[in-house]
Prior knowledge:
4 helices
Amino acid sequence: MMTTSDDRLDPLLDAWAHQHRLDDADADSILRSILQEPRATLAATWWSNLNDQVTAAVLRATSPADALWAAPAEGAFAA
């Protein structure tokens, strides 16, 4: 079996992580600073708005061209 770069990356990352640990006080300080930052909030209707946009895009992508929906011009099929 061929060794891929992914197979070699995990042990390298594991070794690096064991050499670079935060002490508990530093980790706690970082966590508190992250949690104290105000978080952006989404509008209550964000999911509905997203679904509306996705649905419209799917309909546009899967609908025939407008010319196919138009009524044929008078005499278009006349022999």
